[in-house]
Structures are given as C-alpha cells and as structure tokens.
Amino acid sequence: MNRTKPPEFKTQFAEDVFCGLTSYPKKLSSKFFYDEKGDQLFQQIMGLPEYYLTGKEYQILVRHREEIGEAFASLEGFDLIELGAGDGKKTKVLLRHFEEKNYDFKYLPVDISQNVLEQLSQSLETEIPGIEVEPQQGTYAQVLTKLSEYKNRKKIILFLGSNIGNLSQQEAINFLSGIKASMNSKDLFFMGVDQKKHPQVILDAYNDTSGITAAFNKNLLTRINRELEANFDLEAFMHWPLYDPETGIAKSYLVSKKEQVVQINDLNLEVHFQAWETIHTEISQKYDDTSISWLAEEAGLQIVKNWTDKEKCFKNYLFQTL
Ligand SMILES: C[S@@+](CC[C@H](N)C(=O)[O-])C[C@H]1O[C@@H](n2cnc3c(N)ncnc32)[C@H](O)[C@@H]1O
User: How confident is the model over 94-102, as a mean pLDDT?
Assistant: First the structure.
C-alpha cells in the first residue's frame, strides 16, 4: 500500500473504503453492498433455494399475522418504522393484514439505499394503495438519533431479515440500547433473527451453487471501480464464506488470488495485496434464545413473545422496554 497526502473525502463511502483498505486486516462494510446492482442481486439471493432466511420469515409472518397484529394494534393507532426495509416483500404481509383490519397506522420504511426505497414506495402505491407511507433514506445510526421524535402515538420498530446479524455483538448491544433509549413504555420492537442450526445449511446460504452471492460480494469492488475510479480486476478475487458453529458467526471474504496492486484514483491510493490476502466484507451472526435473551438484557429490553417456523430455523421476537 502506498499513500501520499490523505484525500479530502467527498462521501462516507470514500472515507470508509479508504479506512478499510488501509487497515490490517483489510475490511469493507456490508452496508455498501446495496447500490442499484446490489439491491437487484440481493433480491435474487432471497429467491435462492439455499437462502432459507426469507422463506422462513415469510412463513412466520403469514402464519401468525393475526396474533402479531393483535400485539401491535392500539386505540390511538401506531407508527410502524422499519429499519433496513429492503424490498419489503415480507413486511407487505403485515401491511396488507393491517389494512384489512382497518388499523390506523403509518408505515415509515428506512433504508440506506434510495433506489430500494423508491422501488418499495412505487410497489406499495400499486399493491396496497390505501396505506400512508413515509420513506426515509438513511443509515441505522442516523435514524437512531431521530427515533425518539416519534412520540405522539405508539411506535413499533421493525428490524426484519436478521439484519441484526450484520452487526458484531458489541455493535448489536449498542444498536439495541439505542432502540431502547428511543422507546416509550407502550412502544414495541419486533426483530427477525436467524437461528443457529446445522452448520452446512448456514454455510450453503452464503455459498449458493449459482454464484449469485459471489457476484453480490464482488459487486462491492465494481462499486469502488465506478464511484471512486479504481481498477479492481474482479477475476483476481474470489468469494469465500465461512461459518463457525461455536461463535455462530458466518463471515464472507474477498480473497486476492495473487499478489497485485489496485489503484483507487479518487482516493489517491494504491492498495497492495499479497497473494491470498483477504478483505472481510460481511458478518452474519446467528443466535439462539439464550444469546438473544442476553442481548436483550444488556440493552434493557424484555422479550414479550416470539414466533417461529416449524423447523425453528428463524424466530421473530417482540420486545418492550424493561
Ligand atoms: C439483508 S437486507 C434485508 C432487507 C429486509 N429487511 C428483508 O428482511 O428482506 C438489508 C437491508 O438493509 C439495508 N441496510 C444495510 N445496512 C444498513 C445500514 N447501516 N443502515 C440502513 N440500512 C441498511 C440494505 O440496503 C438492505 O435493504
């Protein structure tokens, strides 16, 4: 790696790429997966036979929507705030149900990807036109600072798709503590969490045979090439997922297949890779009831109820403040 004067960063992406590729070991945040192409690839991943998470959570929401609705509903109505909403495919199960029940609510999806929010808003306009929707582009960190402003009526915060797994355990505690700090006594937090299970099933979910997950991971390099004028050769890197059943951590890497130097012109940076050096790109922490209870306790939250699928692959937990 060869640096001259540190550049002035034009975007958060530029700053994070600079910091991640000049640290050792190298890393890039998974939140940058989601540009237009990344959104499209993730929607393909959700349809893959190996990626069981979406189907299992969908099943839970369909089967238990009545009971979930009863837990959410309140006389004064509620604000339904979803963090990292994505395409909202599963949330629509609840939204349709709430509309049929004539619940008084507003849906506020939040996502780092403006592209996915626009797609979600458009699809809601045609599929469930009766509901009030107020999308907001931003990161979890940005939204956490504003959440407590929603205090005129009950708020329900949704965090589906095991998005919590993309945070390290300490980040997850900080995140949940932030959620708790924004909650009033009647507010609820509803979170979907992928559970520990046969290690091969988990590993396969991040290593599909059609190569879509590999393309999703490598798309980060394409994004750096395009947005920061770099020359990553995608063929010179390979996607490498791991799963450790002891810690419950699935990790994805991009591994350099040879010694190489990559130029990132916008950052005035040359990045040197040894042969087989890694870039850590994603963590997908798996949990069980014990570790979720521990997280909740650390954050000052209490589990009210949980719902699961037949094989107990995935769970949706409802929390209130302690
Ligand atoms: C794994 S997808 C899950 C989407 C949806 N919750 C689901 O269950 O299908 C993660 C979503 O969170 C968004 N996201 C990732 N990191 C984020 C961050 N730090 N702040 C806000 N949104 C983020 C992504 O753009 C993406 O739409």
Answer: 97
Could you tell me if 215 and 274 lie in one domain? yes
| Residue of 12, 111, 121 best suited for mutating to test ligand 1, as the one with most atoms within 8 Å of CB | 111
Do 162 and 66 sit in the same domain of this protein?
yes
Atom of ligand 1 nearest to the CA of 31: 16
Q: In terms of residue numbers, what domain contains 170? A: 52-195+288-321
The answer to whether residues 267 and 163 belong to one domain is no
| 7 pLDDT above the threshold of 70 | no
272: tokens are: 């040197």
Q: Who lines ligand 1 at CB under 6 A?
A: 31, 34, 42, 84-86, 90, 111-113, 116, 139-140, 160-161, 163
- What's the CA-to-centroid distance between 168 and ligand 1, angstroms? 15
For 212-246, the pLDDT digits (tens) are 999 999 999 999 999 999 999 999 999 999 999 99
Burial 105-127 (b: 16+ CB within 10 A, else e): bbbbbbbbbebbbebbeeebeee
| Residue nearest atom 2 in ligand 1 by C-alpha distance | 86
Taking the centre of ligand 1 as the mean of its atom positions, its distance from the CA of residue 86, in whole angstroms, is: 6
Same domain, 281 and 313: no
Mean pLDDT of 291-297: 97
> CA 258, CA 275: separation in Å to the nearest integer?
4
164 and 299 share a domain?
yes
Question: C-alpha distances in angstroms, 315 versus 54, 73, 113, 268, 319?
Answer: 12, 21, 26, 46, 13
**Confidence bin at 151 (pLDDT 50/70/90):** confident
Q: Is 77 left (phi over 0), alpha (psi -120 to 50) or beta?
A: left
Q: Which residues pair with 83 in a beta bridge?
A: 110
Same domain, 281 and 292: no
Q: Are residues 65 and 157 in the same domain?
A: yes
Give burial (CB, 10 Å; 0-12/13-18/19+) of 68: buried
